[in-house]
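TOKENISE THE FOLD
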Amino acid sequence: NMEEDTYWRTQHVSTEYYNPQYDYNTDYRNAYGYGYAQRKRYGNDQVFELVEQDLQRDWIASRGNSRLEWADARFAVRDAWNRPLI
């Protein structure tokens, strides 16, 4: 979703978990995209923490070229998960 990508491209640097050693295009974009897609998959009535183990397991296969391990990616995934769907 281009609107989501544009939003996170500008917002990710102002988050508490932002790490400048990681790049938006290579690392964070995949985490935000994953969170957005999984929210659509699980639906609005599902709580992130209740499905986090499944998300963590599936992150490895979904992360593409992202260098983020789940311990770092989970924050971006959760932010995208908690952002209202547009």
Notes: The mean pLDDT is 93. Residues 24-42 form the longest helix (19 residues). DSSP finds four helices and no strands in the chain. The two ends are 9 Å apart (CA to CA).
